[in-house]
Records
---
Amino acid sequence: MGRLGWRVMTAAALAALSVGAVAGCGGAASGGAKPPPAQGRPGLPAQQPGQSFYVSDQTSAARELARTTGAEAETLTRIADQPSALWLGGQDVRAKAEDLTVRAAAVGRTALIVAYDIPHRDCGRFSAGGAADASAYRAWIDQLAAGLADRAAWVVLEPDAVAHTLDGCGVTAAAATERYELLTYAVQELKKQPRVRVYLDAGNAGWLKDLDRLAGALRAAGIAAADGFSVNVSNFYTTEQSSAYGDRLSALLGGKRYVIDTSRNGNGPLGDRDWCNPSGRALGETPTTATGRPGVDAYLWIKNPGESDGDCGRGEPKAGDFWLPYALGLARS
């Protein structure tokens, strides 16, 4: 299917992703928050030298590592010691964005965030949910922007939202128009924050084939004001495949730059239709801005490696739950 597919944004799943609790009850962040001490496990640096992005000890992999010992713990550090994105959706977004970016700023790093609250999210599939309506979404974006303030952050905006307007999943023409307007609003509001970069999601190499049509949808969704677009979010296409796809799309968008999700693409896809916890996959390139590829701003771990894509009919954990055997398989490969 080539979609995200894995995320049912329950409170439990979001809490596992958060720096606080991603699905708590609403409310703006309190003012005057003090930067917490730099984080890291005893005997290890809080942040690895040369890394631009913030490595949180509150990711699902880091939390699991605190409960793991021996050889498994050593293997799991290959995930926990790398920066991965915080997915934000639902209530209390301002407090969560502020918490993460304050922590990142305290150690001189850039926070990675996914904004994921568009109305009618994921066409009612695994990751169904999102803001109740257009007005609620604009208010949610306002709160996210306020939480980021003047601190450094890269935001991947609404994975799948544009592609789902084109793939026949049931988004009506009127709903698509509203979605483009909301995404344009989101880009504009987030870009008012001086140190925020915004990447509007553009699907993956195995999904939409008509890139002219996709480029038109991205333009309607405000790509002109964004820093670029993201590809391969939560998918497995190799960096070569993803960069070829990104380059073609960039050429249609006046040279817009892009980022690639390399969190699980080390062995490429098992098949174009096998996106749900496919076996034998591997971690890809670690997050970096030094890609050596013209047009590619960074390799990022946007999907958090080790979190289940959902119950794919084989007894896997529900979407968003950390799954230690799968995480170890990714790290060992």
Note: DSSP finds nine helices and seven strands in the chain.
---
Amino acid sequence: MTTNDSVQVSVLGLGAMGSALAAALVKAGYATTVWNRSPGKADDLVAQGAKAAATAGDAVLAGQLMIVCLLDHASVHEVLDPLSDELAGRTLINVTTTSPAQSRELADWAAHAGVAYLDGGIMAVPHMIGQPGASILYSGSAEVFNQHKPLLDLWATSTYFGEDAGLASLYDLALLAGMYVMFAGFMHGAAMVAPAGVTAGEFAGMAAPWLTAMTGAFHGFAAVIDGGDYTVEGQQSLEFSNLSNLLAASSDQGISTEVVAMVQRLIQRQIDAGHGAEGFARIIESIKQPG
């Protein structure tokens, strides 16, 4: 297991998230070298005790462990491809947001370069790093995860999903899918009540506890989905879940119906296929098999 006095760490990419990760390492006493393409981003970290590298190559040579937090998949290759020889024998933990396929491609690239690779999906915003509630999902090298877990746990709760480097990204993006659709639903509701003079703040006061309570239904839906029987008693039927009134009310308020219409289409496809009496959870079949 690594300790803060036994590993030299380099952080490449000092956007808001990269800076937060680096700051946590410096605070914990890790010898941390930092690099960013645009100048000036390292100044605060240097004042805290980090060392600034003039080039990405210098940052790689300064550390055994590379933390990469860049804009996107292309940026990772742009920075690291010219440094593959220098990276050989080192460890790379990539927390840049990528797709599962891109994460797997980077793992293959690292393997060919002789680099131990761990991929991470950050389920937090920068100010949450090092605070309760932050979570980072990892997949790829189990050896890297286990060796550096004390360092990883400085940032957030660390969860490992296996050797397939794409799994962390897959979980990350799947969780974000739920978040963004929920946010869109909240904003649709706020738009609905706005013509009645209700502020978004007032609506949030009603929506937050309601939506929080509704997340308790996830486990029930999951049990039905995993069981594969959408006729289990106690479910709200697809026919009862018809959203026509909600769509009509939205139109009457003069707002877009796109958010709700998307859900209505998923419901209607199952009703049209003869499953109207079955439970709402069956809309996952519409999602699994695009029309």
Note: The longest helix spans residues 167-193.
